[in-house]
Every structure is written in C-alpha cells, then in structure tokens.
Design a protein that fits this description.
heterodimer, A: four-stranded antiparallel β-sheet, 9 helices, 22 strands, B: six-stranded antiparallel β-sheet, 2 helices, elongated
Chain lengths: 397, 91
C-alpha cells in the first residue's frame, strides 16, 4: 500500500524519526489506531515512514512516551497541492473557468437538422420546432423530453404522420414521416346534371346535389335532373352535382341493307418473300418480281433475334402473298332485315355507351327497291342520360 | 479444568479440520519468493533495522534477516515486508 488515492486526498507526509525506542513507538502508534506505511531504516537510530496529515498530528503523545523526535521531509497530496494552487489563483480560476465553459458550450444546441420530409418544407418544421423551444443556441437542459417534444411537434404538423426528435450531442435531428394523401380529383366547377335526350326515368341516384326528377317521370332534353343549387331563394349554395340517372330513350333508325353481300375468299394460292431485317430496315432476299395475282393480300411476320432475353436489332421477315377472290352472295329479304337491324344496334351501342340495354325493338317500315331493303327501326334503350351544365352565378360579383 | 478445555479445543479442531493458526493463535507467514513477506497474527515490532526485523508473537518471537528491509504496511496484527529476505527463524 503505497498510499491510496484516499490518502492522497487527505495528504501524505513523509516523516523521519530519530532517537529513543523507535520499535515501541511504531507498536504504540499502531495500537493507537494510526496508519503508518513504508517504514524503513535509513541508518541506526533513524526511521522513515509515511502517514496522513491527520495522523501526523496525533503522533505527539507516542513520541513523548518513547522520547523520539520527528521532522517532516516530504509533503504530498491534495492539501499541499491546494496550497500551491492558492499561490496561483488566476491559474486555478482559469482552470475552473475552462471546465465551466466547456460544460456550458457543450450544453447548447448548436445545430438543428431536419430529415425525411418531401412535401413539408424545412422552414415549416423548424418553425414548429421553434415554437416548442428547439432552436439554435438553446440550452439543452431547458428542452423537454424528446418523446414529449416529438408529440408536440407532430401536433403542430398535421401533414406528418410521425415525428421523431433525437438529441445527438450538441445537434438535434428531427425525423419526419409524411402521411400519404389520396390523389385529389380534378377541380370541377359547380354544375347541374341535365338530360341528354327525351326519356322516361328508370333510376336516379344523387351523390351530391338535389334530385329534381323521380322514377317513371318523363323528361325532355335539357331538363335538370340533379340540381347543383341547394337551399331556398334567400340562402343559396351551389355544389358540384354528382350522380347517376338512367332512363328509357327512343331511337329511330333509317337503315339501308343491300340484298347482295360481297364476301372475300382465299383461293389457296400463295407465294413467299423473305426479308433480312437490321435496325428497322428490311432488305428483300427472295421472292422477287410482281405478285402473279390480280387481287391479293400480304401477311407479314417478323422474327427478331434475341440473346439472354435481350432483343438484338437483327432478324428476318416473312411476307406471304395470298390470292383473294371476291364472291357475291344473294341474301333473302329476311336475312337483309336482320342484318340491317344488327347494324343499327351496333351503331346505337357505340353512341349510348357500354352500359346501355336495349329493351325493345320495333320495325316500323320496310321497302325493297333496286336490290336494297329500306328499313325504319325504333329501338327502346335504357341508358345513362346525364350530361353536365355549369351553373353561371347570377348574383353580382 | 483448563487442561480439559484445551483438549476439547484440540479435539474439535481436529474434527472440524480447522487451520492451526485460527485455533492456536499462531502466526501465518506468506512469502513470495525472496522479496515479499506477509505475516499475520504478530504482536508488535521488537526490533527493526534494514537487515533485521524481530516481531513478537503470542508465544516466542519471529526473526527475519535480509537486506534493505522495508515495512511496506503495518497494522496491529499484520505486517507486510519488502526487501531481500534471506532467513526466517521462529524462536
């Protein structure tokens, strides 16, 4: 035990003792509860040892009893060190100030970082953070717990679904997770929904707006079906009318259907032309000369080289030239009529939309003349009959 | 009566296999090579110089001779000596 740090704090004194009964002095001092260490003989009748400052002053009675004399040859430890420091006050003050300054400067917030935001601007986040006390040159011990701070900042940012505040030394990192928003629909101006045709209503569903008509009501083209203006005359509000209205509409068709049908037939004869293809350009390789047929069709088939799923710009093209003959077929009157009606229906479906349903059909008039059948058909169709009409504000600007 | 007591003591010590130093108040000496010496159960320093150390025991005394002997630490019942130790004698 060469003097522990505790001894060092108390102060270590190296003592030289002379004369008298040194052994019994050591024995007595130990019995008295004093701590002595590193006891060594330097010469006959002379002893050196170390003890703490407190115990040094308690040596006196034992010295008297054994008639020894002591004098101090070395001082060590904190009390003596402090004495030395007292002589250099400004050095000591500077030392203390250095540590105080270091502590104070390291407890400032030097840097606020924001990460993870895309739509929300940094300024917006920093403003919210500042309102909660996070800004540059803020004392970090003034800040609340990061968990509390992140909750409060999240409350200030409605577009953020999660906010994390992390303290890393002298900088604060604010992590933002933005909430995903559904795509906003296109902007629409206030409108009514009106009828496209004269019709009898079969179904009306208004999502927004005020339904004006009811089922089985007769409407004329241009009548308002779902109104976009709500309220009475005094208090009016215009909205974007939305909804579905279906009705039965009558369509009259004049169809001309020929009694002779032209049909295209392949004769079975064909020739082949080969082409080599490189980078979008084809070079004919075989099958030169004009096609030997009066009427023909050409069918192309291209094959591209590929290597490991990677398409190369090389390939070949096969052209098959097929001879065609046009035959004429005579139709009966009945066949011509059904064909004409079919034509009318196909035309109607493209006009009325895919969800249209043909409820009834009626042949009004039929006349055969010059190898053609003239038809007049009435089709009863259930279809969507809405179209938009913007509301023009009648009130003064 | 006293003799009986001592015999009883000896008998229990044998029975329980207690170390002798605990039972008879004998010194326990631990020596590390020739440089360190640790003595427990002494009864004070009789003589100390750089080549000779005499310690009182409960019965008799212990003499250590060597060179540059230093009492590194000392308590009332233990002493820790450093130096070149040449000879230990129990009297």
């Amino acid at each position: 035990m060469k003097g522990t740090w505790l001894h060092w704090v108390k102060g270590i004194v190296t003592v030289r003792a002379r004369g008298g009964e040194l052994e019994s002095f050591v024995n007595l001092a130990l019995q008295g509860g004093l701590t002595l260490w590193s006891i060594r003989r330097t010469s006959e009748g002379q002893l050196e040892f170390e003890t703490t400052v407190g115990h040094f002053f308690r040596l006196r009675p034992y010295l008297k009893r054994t008639s020894c004399r002591v004098h101090v040859i070395g001082r060590n430890g904190m009390p003596f060190w402090l004495l030395k420091v007292r002589r250099r006050v400004f050095f000591g003050v500077g030392l203390v100030l250095f540590f105080v300054g270091l502590y104070l400067l390291s407890s400032l917030v030097w840097n606020v970082q924001v990460s993870g935001n895309i739509r929300i601007s940094d300024e917006q986040i920093l403003k919210a953070a500042k309102a909660e006390g996070i800004h540059q040159l803020q004392w970090s011990f003034k800040l609340q717990d990061p968990a509390v701070l992140s909750k409060k900042i999240a409350a200030r940012l409605p577009d953020a679904s999660w906010v994390g505040v992390e303290k890393k030394g002298t900088s604060i990192v604010i992590n933002i997770v933005e909430s995903t928003k559904p795509n906003e629909g296109p902007l629409l101006s206030p409108r009514h929904l009106i009828a496209t045709d004269d019709a009898v209503i079969t179904d009306i569903q208004a999502d927004t707006g005020r339904p004006v008509v009811k089922r089985n009501m007769r409407v004329k083209k241009g009548d308002i079906l779902i109104s976009g203006s709500l309220g009475d005359e005094a208090n009016i509000q215009t909205v974007i009318a939305k909804g579905k209205v279906r009705g039965i509409v009558w369509h009259e068709y004049n169809v001309v259907s020929p009694l002779i049908e032209k049909v295209k037939v392949y004769t079975g004869l064909s020739t082949t032309r080969w082409h080599a293809v490189a980078g979008g350009r084809a070079l004919q390789v075989s099958g030169f000369g004009k096609a030997p047929y009066t009427q023909y069709e050409v069918v192309q088939r291209e094959e591209q080289l590929s290597w490991h799923g990677l398409k190369l710009p090389f390939g070949r093209m096969k052209e098959t030239v097929l001879e065609v003959r046009v035959d004429e077929r005579k139709l009966t009157e009945e066949e011509a009529v059904t064909k004409g009606i079919q034509q009318a229906k196909a035309d109607l479906m493209t006009k009325a939309g895919a969800d249209a349903v043909i409820v009834a059909e009626k042949l009004l008039h039929e006349k055969t003349d010059n190898g053609k059948v003239y038809l007049k058909v009435l089709l009863e169709v259930e279809q969507s009959i809405v179209t938009e009409m913007p509301i023009v504000s009648t009130q003064g600007e | 009566m006293r003799r009986m007591n001592r015999r009883l003591q000896k008998w229990t010590a044998n029975l329980l296999e207690l170390p002798q130093d605990v039972v008879y108040d004998l010194p326990r000496v631990t020596m590390i090579g020739d440089r360190q010496l640790y003595i427990e159960n002494h009864r004070g320093v009789l003589h100390f110089s750089s080549d000779r150390l005499r310690l009182a025991l409960s019965k008799g005394e212990l003499e250590v001779t060597g060179e540059d002997l230093v009492i590194r630490t000392i308590w009332t019942e233990e002493v820790f000596i450093e130096g070149v130790i040449k000879h230990i004698e129990v009297r």
